[in-house]
Amino acid sequence: MTARRAVLRGLGAAALIAGPLRSGGQQPPKGARVGILWPALLNDPLRQKFSAVFRQRLGELGHVEGKTLFLEERFSDGSSQRLGELASELVQAKVAVILAPTVSAALAARQATDTIPIVMLFAGNPVGAGLIASLARPGGNVTGTSNLPLGGKHVDLMREIVPRIARLAVLVNPNNAGARNFVASMSDAARSVGIDVTVVEVARAENFAAAFASIRDARPDWLHVAGDPMLGSHRAEWVEFAKGAHLPVSSDAGETARVGGLISYGPLLTDHFLLGAAYVDKIIKGAKPADLPVEQPTRYELFLNLKTARLLGLTIPQSVLLRADEVIQ
After folding, report:
1. pLDDT value, residue 129
2. Considering only CA atoms, which of 240, 42, 80 is closest in space to residue 176?
3. What confidence tens digit (pLDDT) does each residue in 159-182 have?
4. What is the rounded CA–CA span in Å between residue 195 and residue 187?
5. What are phi and psi of 292, to 5 degrees?
């Protein structure tokens, strides 16, 4: 065999070996593929903060994004209707695990697959939603973190700030799987101390005008907006409405107080993403969701906007100020 023929045969063999490894001109990545089903906008600052916390914790656990781990992210832009379609995309992408913040995202993922592990985050009432059998023994392919109902805590804060509160309006998205449990928690707490509750539903953005009219008609002393991606994506609108109606408004997200709402009280959501990274790490290493108990982080944040309080003519009690994690002047 001539030297020229040997070189040509060597090149041919190399092409045969390299050929099957290529797909569309690219060598397929090695490492775990993790899907994230975001019920939020791509450029949402809060989502970006959570994403950074999740990625950093994965790095601390030894994962290198782009080498040992690849993230497949999908964004519903606050639309609960799109979650199912996006969950199916992640299943088709053959991810090893799906991270699903909120009970709505977790339900969409669970409806798309009963085999791929799902890590839910801050899911309200996951047992009632049918995601897990119990916190201690989740069963099936779902585990993660859950929130404790905080309706009673919110009502206590309202009464400290507005002692004579008699009427409360609660704005909710009825399509959110955790809405019923939250409304029950807040309504029971409010009615037990003589506060009338009006529940106003907003399922789509075009419903806000009618919802605001209903709230005006109810003439409440306070407006509380339940946690929900769609409602959160319109935070500026309902905060502005509350200002115009001279109405204290609260929610569980710190961003509400930062953009002009009166008060925010809710779980420290970054804790859920830290735990989420730990769940993903364990599952990638072979753990089964059914064997990983659901956790309920117990750290909470209280934000106050004193500028808004002054505009409303309210004096925030010292007892509340001392408990605040952040006070916006």
Report:
1. 87
2. 80
3. 999 999 999 999 999 988 778 888
4. 9
5. -110, 105
Structure tokens at 288: 């089964």
Tell me how far apart the alpha carbons of residues 267 and 279 are, in angstroms, rounded to a whole number: 19
> Cβ(108)–Cβ(85) under 8 Å?
no
Structural domains of the chain ordered from first start: 32-147+269-298 (3.40.50.2300), 151-267+301-328 (3.40.50.2300)
Look up residue 279 and give its two tokens: 């769940």
**Residue ranges of the alpha helices (H) in the chain?**
3-18, 45-60, 80-92, 103-112, 151-161, 179-192, 208-218, 229-233, 235-244, 254-258, 269-284, 306-312, 318-321
pLDDT in tens, 190-201: 999 999 999 999
In whole angstroms, what is the distance from residue 183 CA to residue 167 CA? 15
Element (H, E) at 265: strand 263-267
Return the DSSP state at 28. Answer: P
Q: Which pLDDT score is estimated for 148?
A: 82
In 43-79, which positions are buried (b, 16+ CB within 10 angstroms) versus exposed (e)? ebeebeebbebbbebbeeeebeeeeebbbbebbbbbb
Radius of gyration of the chain (CA): 24
Whole-prediction pTM value?
Answer: 0.81
What average pLDDT does the chain have?
Answer: 89
pLDDT at 228: 85
Write down the pLDDT at residue 224: 98
